[in-house]
Design goal:
Layout: E1 20-23, H1 25-28, E2 34-40, E3 45-53, E4 57-64, E5 66-71, E6 74-79, E7 83-86, E8 92-95, E9 102-109, E10 116-122, E11 127-136, E12 141-146, E13 152-156
Antiparallel strand pairs: 1-2, 2-9, 3-8, 3-10, 4-7, 4-9, 5-6, 5-8, 10-11, 11-12, 12-13
Amino acid sequence: MERVDIREDGAGPSIAEADVYRRLSKPLGTEELALNYAEIEPDGQLGFDYHRHRDQEEVFVVTGGTVTFETEDGDVRVGEGEAIRFGPDEFQLATNRDDERATLLALGAPRGSREIQYRRACPTCEEETLQDLEFDRERAVFEGVCTECGEVAVEVEPS
């Protein structure tokens, strides 16, 4: 049995973009499940941009406030006490469009997803494209590599 205080910082590079983001998997010793706690201020988001995990399903449990998920089927509002699931390859982005802070738990399986794609504008292609997320360990930055032209479309320093 392991126990963790979700108010303490977790370790590891992230581009979660949330105002508070705690990685709970490692301190709890989960092997197959990624578990994170997040707090999103009004007009904030969880995640760098609209994305999908090619190799992971995700469940979000809203523990406070309301979170709006941008999806391919349109926006879905999920309130306190509700949960939403995304299967592998389903695009989504969690945002807080309300006036109060939102809190949620994010669960993903299998743990350690590395196949993440973003749908964003590519400056080289001059249009919206799919971009594979890669972590350049030497420079310690995440790179969005355009699947159309192969160029690095964006670099993000982990928080």
